[in-house]
Specification:
Elements: E1 2-3, E2 6-7, H1 15-22, H2 26-39, E3 46-48, E4 51-53, E5 55-58, E6 61-64, H3 69-85, E7 96-97, E8 109-112, E9 115-118, E10 120-121, E11 124-127, E12 130-133, H4 139-162, H5 166-182, H6 192-210, H7 214-219, H8 224-231, H9 236-253, H10 259-265, H11 284-289, E13 292-294, E14 297-300, H12 302-306, H13 309-320
Parallel strand pairs: 7-10
Antiparallel strand pairs: 1-2, 3-4, 5-6, 8-9, 11-12, 13-14
Length: 321
C-alpha cells in the first residue's frame, strides 16, 4: 500500500515504526492498512488504466467508489467494523450516498451494536470545499462561490474604505475576495455562460469595492475598463485561466500514478459514447487553445507540451498577459 504516495509495507507489527516514520498516528496507519485489504477485492474494483479505483481519501475524509449500491453497502459495513478495532467511529450523520442515474435505488444501511442505521441519499454534497452533485453540474458551485465572495468583501469593506493607497486596497481584494470567488477553479469546465456569470459577479463586487452603483456607472457612462482603472484589481478570467493552466501542467508532469493524471489519460475503450453531443470536458478548452495544429492535422497535443516545463511556462505567459 502507499501512504501519502510514499511506498511502504504496512503490516501490523510495524505500525508503530511506520507511524513514527511518516509522522502519522498509529490509528491512521492501521486504518489505511485495513482499508486497502477491504477495498482491493477484484469483484468491487473499477479498472482505470490498469489500476483499481475503489476509494479516494484525504485525511479522514473518505469516498468509497463501487459498481453497485450492494457492493458499496458491504464495503461501508466492513470499514465500520474495521474502524472499531482501532478505536475509531464513523459518523453516520455525515456519511451520505451519492449515486448516478444508472445506479439502482437499493437502500444502504450500516449495522452497529444490533442497530441498523439508514444512510441518507443526497443529490449534492460538499467535499473538501467543493459542491459535488449527481448531474456533474457546475452551476450550484458557482452560486456558492458568488456567496462566498460577497461575504469576503463584506468582511474587509470597512478596512478597505479606511485605506488610502489604491495598490494596497487592490492587493487586499485580490488576496481575499478573488480566491473566495475562484476556489477550485483549476478543475472547472468553463463554458461561455459560466465565464460570463463569473465576470458579471466580479464586476458587481468591483463596483461595491470602489463605491459605485450600477445606476451611477450608467449615468456617468463608465465602462468596465474605467472601473478597473479605479479598482486596480486583477481580471478574474485571466486569474482563473492562469490557475487552470498551472494545474494542468502539474497534472501532466506527475509520474507518481495519482488519479488526477491517470483519469486524464484514461480512454474507456470498452464503453460506448451516449447518443447526442457530449458535454464539454475539462481538457476541451486546452485542446482547442493550446494544441498545435496545421490545418486540421494535430502536430503537438497540449498534454505533450505541458510535460516540458519551460514550454508550458511560455504558454501560460502567452495566454495570461
Amino acid at each position: 500500500m502507499s501512504h501519502f504516495y510514499k511506498p511502504g509495507e504496512f503490516d501490523t507489527p510495524g505500525v508503530k515504526h511506520l507511524a513514527k516514520k511518516y509522522n502519522v498516528s498509529r490509528r491512521s496507519v492501521a486504518t489505511d492498512n485495513r482499508l486497502a485489504e477491504l477495498l482491493e477485492e477484484t469483484n468491487r474494483i473499477i479498472r482505470i488504466n490498469g489500476r483499481n479505483l475503489t476509494h479516494l481519501r484525504f485525511a479522514d475524509d473518505i469516498i468509497l467508489i463501487s459498481k453497485t449500491p450492494q457492493i458499496a453497502e458491504k464495503m461501508l459495513q466492513e470499514l465500520v467494523n474495521s474502524c472499531e478495532t482501532v478505536g475509531l467511529e464513523i459518523n453516520a450523520n455525515k456519511t451520505k450516498v451519492l449515486r448516478n442515474k444508472f445506479a439502482s435505488s437499493h437502500q444502504i444501511n450500516i449495522r452497529k451494536n444490533n442497530t441498523t442505521t439508514a444512510i441518507e441519499d443526497v443529490e449534492e454534497y460538499v467535499y473538501l470545499g467543493r459542491l459535488l452533485n449527481t448531474k456533474n453540474d457546475l452551476e450550484p458551485e458557482i452560486h456558492r462561490r458568488r456567496r462566498s465572495a460577497w461575504a469576503a468583501l463584506n468582511n474587509i469593506k470597512n478596512t478597505t474604505d479606511a485605506l488610502t493607497c489604491p495598490k494596497i486596497r487592490a492587493q487586499l481584494f485580490d488576496s481575499i475576495v478573488l480566491p473566495a470567488l475562484t476556489y477550485g477553479s483549476e478543475t472547472w469546465t468553463f463554458t461561455k455562460a459560466l465565464s460570463e456569470r463569473v465576470r458579471i459577479t466580479h464586476a458587481a463586487l468591483e463596483r461595491k469595492f470602489v463605491g459605485i452603483t450600477l445606476t451611477e456607472q450608467r449615468e456617468k457612462n463608465l465602462h468596465r475598463e474605467d472601473i478597473r482603472k479605479m479598482s486596480q484589481v486583477k481580471d478574474p478570467l485571466v486569474f482563473i485561466k492562469k490557475r487552470k493552466l498551472g494545474w494542468a501542467g502539474h497534472v501532466m508532469r506527475r509520474n507518481d500514478n495519482r488519479w488526477t493524471t491517470l483519469l486524464q489519460e484514461w480512454i474507456p475503450r470498452n464503453e460506448k459514447r451516449p447518443v447526442g453531443r457530449p458535454p464539454m470536458r475539462w481538457a476541451d478548452s486546452l485542446k482547442k487553445e493550446i494544441s498545435v495544429r496545421q490545418g486540421t492535422q494535430l502536430i503537438e497535443p497540449w498534454s505533450t507540451i505541458a510535460k516540458d516545463r519551460k514550454k508550458w511556462i511560455a504558454v501560460i505567459r502567452a495566454h495570461t498577459n
